[in-house]
Write a structure and sequence with these properties.
Two copies of one chain form a homodimer. The first copy, chain A, is α+β, with helices and mostly antiparallel strands. The first copy, chain A, has two domains: about 80 residues, Orthogonal Bundle (Arc Repressor Mutant, subunit A), CATH 1.10.10.10; about 50 residues, Dna Ligase, domain 1 (2-Layer Sandwich), CATH 3.30.1490. Helices cover about 30% and strands about 20% of the residues of chain A. In chain A, the strands form two sheets. In chain A, strands 4-3-5 form a three-stranded mixed beta sheet, with no helix packed on it. In chain A, strand 1 and strand 2 form a beta hairpin. In chain A, helix 3 crosses helix 4. The longest helix of chain A is centred in the middle third of the chain and has 13 residues. The first copy, chain A, is globular, with a radius of gyration of 17 Å. At the A-B interface, strand 3 and strand 5 of A face strand 3 and strand 5 of B. Strand 5 of chain A pairs antiparallel with strand 5 of chain B, so a sheet runs across the interface. The first copy, chain A, binds a DNA duplex through helix 4.
Chain lengths: ~140, ~140
DNA sequence: CTAATTGCAAAAATTTTGCAGGACT
DNA sequence: AGTCCTGCAAAATTTTTGCAATTAG
């Protein structure tokens, strides 16, 4: 999407566009590492030396409310965020913590035991060793 | 398993059996709520008023090394632990955080894009609203 | 102009660590 | 007896919050 179109799009969602927010959005969009709040903070503090964690967390929360990003509960040591909100799956390396996207579709039948629940989503999480770590 | 047999079993794994460890193991075995370290601490501090978090975390780590429990990375706000170590799946309620076990077997074909990885495990995580929360 | 956002600093929540004394085998 | 474990307290990590100053619309 063109940059101006994007800003319009965000505005239509009711987001106030600040330079910090744009930078966070842009960082997320160009990053497939599923960054944590700290990753984002570190990546942007050069361009915005005065930016605080409050802004990062605040922005992440607003972006989640608007459905532009998702929190992925895979890395139990910290929250990580994903700008790819369509249903997809993940692989996490047990050694280095690297998370890879898995775009394949799986044919999952909702099991009987969850018939009383309202299922909104599911994801498959693979775990093991990534190509780099399996060599060591 | 009989209590004495269990103690023998733990000893054979090289675990030193202390009253605190036995209590933590027992608590985990009889609890299908996927408790956090704090849940365990709170549940046991009546019986062991002097017990500290260090002991809870230390014990959890030892139990994980021995393969008696697993850490489940589903609730991104805190680590939660599962004494059911055979492969199985989960449902988490987006509202109350309740985690349910899903014992069904899913036929998952390891996708092409992970062929370079060593896959050790996978789990399906459903999310939505549990029977109680979907009424509100 | 008004309401929302930022930055700061303090606090809360969760997890980890060092170490002295105590318990298990 | 020797090693491992416990408990305490302090520290490290991650996330949240209150508030005054600033900025976007």
């Amino acid at each position: 999407m063109e940059k101006l179109q994007k800003i319009d799009y965000y505005k239509k969602l009711g987001l106030k566009i600040t330079p910090q927010r744009l930078a966070i959005l842009e960082y997320l969009e160009n990053n497939r590492e599923h960054p944590s709040a700290e990753d984002i903070y570190n990546a942007l503090k050069e361009r915005f030396p005065s930016m605080s964690f409050a802004t990062v967390y605040n922005t992440l929360e607003v972006l989640m409310e608007k459905g532009l990003i998702k929190e992925i509960g895979i890395d139990s040591s910290k929250k990580r965020f994903d700008p790819v909100v369509h249903p997809h799956h993940h692989f996490i390396c047990r050694k280095c913590g690297h998370i890879l996207d898995v775009e394949k579709d799986f044919d999952i039948i909702i099991p009987q035991e969850l018939s009383e629940c309202k299922i909104l989503d599911f994801q498959v999480v693979f775990s093991g060793l990534c190509p780099e770590c399996k060599e060591d």
